[in-house]
From TrEMBL:
The gene is truD. SUPFAM superfamilies: Pseudouridine synthase (SSF55120). It holds the Pfam family TruD. One of its GO terms (biological process) is tRNA pseudouridine synthesis. Belongs to the pseudouridine synthase TruD family. This is tRNA pseudouridine synthase D. GO terms for cellular component: cytosol. Its EC number is 5.4.99.27.
Length: 340
């Protein structure tokens, strides 16, 4: 799904094995708030081994004898790994829920339970902390050189293969839906819409990297303020703007396509439209679905990045990514990986 996308630092020559065991890919979800300890919503932090989010949510619902529709979570997590994430369920204050009271499969472990006055909603997430182990590395020295590049210059902020489903199936389903097939399941419909506009974002972003425009401003670019969803349109390019871009104070963005006009203008708008023109069915389908136009930075910088060389062919890597960013996009720039 990502094979055709451009690299920032060139395709890596180093090879490595990734996700040999579930423990080689560890993810901890970080909420943007601390649960209050009071309220009618029970927050449950689960550690999952080799299970996906929807399966875990159903298991929780069965244990609590409630409908799966009452189980909320901030986002979907990869099945292949050991991941911890939060779920919330609205239950009467008189209901006592503790780790010991939940009967769950052995692949799920309750880390903590706490009450809060609001449900956990989709997208309400600060980010994720990753601990990744790469094995059978062909050259640890070359991999360390790439890590320095990534730490200093970032990686393309591509949506990962997980967004598109096995073999890109979510895109196939999106195309069928846009062609008129009715999708009754709201969850699946949302997945297909997200896959479609994520693909469009990846294509526009890849074109910027392919043309060496990832750090070159164009008139009409929408630039995001770092750490914010706010942006402004570049009307004229000067040394001050270039300096702000170089320092990371502002970031070039690409469209998350939807209903309404592109926010970009001038040269940047023409560039974006040229990439989107190759996918008219997806663009028209997203407009009909009334998804709101948004912007997303084309670069992401792994935060708090550190690593440890375990032996001559094994390295453990730790870093934090903001919500919506994919560790696989970091690994893709680091090494050519295989699953075992």
């Amino acid at each position: 799904m990502l094979d055709s996308l451009a690299y920032f630092h060139g395709e890596p020559a180093t090879t490595a094995a990734f996700k040999v065991e579930p423990e080689d890919f560890q993810v901890t979800e970080i909420l943007p708030f601390a649960p209050s300890g009071q309220g009618e919503h029970v927050f449950i932090q689960l550690q999952k081994r080799g299970e996906n989010t929807l399966w875990a949510a159903n298991a929780l619902a069965q244990s609590l004898k409630v409908s799966p529709k009452l189980v909320s979570f901030a986002g979907l997590k990869d099945r292949q790994g050991v991941t911890s994430q939060w779920f919330s369920i609205q239950l009467p204050v008189s209901s006592k829920v503790s780790p010991a009271s939940l009967a769950l499969p052995s692949s799920l472990k309750v880390l903590q339970t706490v009450r809060h006055h609001k449900k956990l909603r989709r997208g309400v997430l600060k980010g994720n902390q990753f601990v990744i182990t790469l094995k059978n590395i062909s050259s640890v020295e070359a991999l360390l050189e790439r890590l320095d590049l990534i730490r200093n210059r970032g990686v393309p902020n591509y949506f990962g293969a997980q967004r598109f489903g096995h073999g890109g199936n979510n895109l196939t389903k999106a195309a069928q839906m846009f062609a008129g097939k009715r999708i009754k399941d709201r969850e699946k419909r949302g997945l297909y819409l997200s896959a479609a506009r994520s693909m469009l974002f990846n294509q526009v972003t890849s074109a910027r990297f392919q043309n060496q425009l990832q750090q070159t401003l164009m008139v009409g670019d929408c630039v995001l303020l770092r750490g914010s969803h706010s942006f402004f349109v570049v009307e004229a390019i000067d040394d001050m703007l270039r300096a702000r871009l170089k320092s990371g104070d502002i970031q070039i963005s690409a469209p998350l396509f939807g209903d309404g006009d592109l926010s970009s203008s001038g040269t940047a708008r023409e560039f974006e439209q040229a990439q989107l023109a190759a996918y008219p069915e997806f663009c028209e389908g997203l407009v009909r679905a009334r998804l709101k136009q948004e912007r997303r930075a084309i670069l992401v910088f792994p935060e708090q990045i550190q690593w440890r060389v375990i032996d001559s062919s094994t390295l453990q890597l730790e870093f934090f990514l903001p919500a919506g960013c994919y560790a696989t996009s970091v690994i893709r720039e680091l090494a050519n990986v295989c699953p075992s």
